[in-house]
Amino acid sequence: MAAFDEHAGAYDSWFLDNQNLLASELKLVAHFLDKDSEILSIGCGSGLFEMLLAKEYDIHIKHGIEPSKDMAEIAEKRGVQVNISPAETSEVEFDKFDIIMFNGSISYISDLDVCIQKAFAALKTGGKLILIDVPKESGFASLYNLASAVNTWEHPLLAHISPDDPYPIELVKSANWRTSDEKIKQMQSSGFVDLEYAQTLLTHPMYANDKVQDVITGYDRGDYVAICGYKK
Fold it and tell me: Can you give the CATH number for the domain in which 219 is found?
């Protein structure tokens, strides 16, 4: 994706400048993952989360798919074997993985239905798919959509309600945020069952980086939500 090729450094810098938010999201990403599992990260980006999962949770993700060459190059330096390809057209072995996760990449995928169906085929029986992202109904997505509509964070409508260090506008404008209900229906229609939910970033976005936040069950209040479903 062109936006991430041009702004790969800005992606990492933003997360590293927002350490408490990063730690909160990392806790959520780790929540449904298992050690010693064969895990595929779709839209792995720069491999930042994968690197931190290994360092802080002893969860090792060796395989990724990422369309941005610039991001993939960074991820590979961090130990992820990356298939540089859009998720919709990538080649994935059938019945290979215990876990497939999309962390923060769902909103940058045009045809999520195709990707979920391909994930179902690539998972072993009993494996799980985890979708983790900012839901459209959340406070963050509302701010992102407004910033995208006015093409800047520097607008009176966003004054005093946006974080001090907002997500880069170029990456905000490239996204298509989906509701949790949309993602749940897509997973169920592809055959995933026994869905589970977890969420974090439970404050207003202005305060999301003030402290590391808890992970709780459900998807009714978090600005970062994980949906986990099983292939039976």
Answer: 3.40.50.150
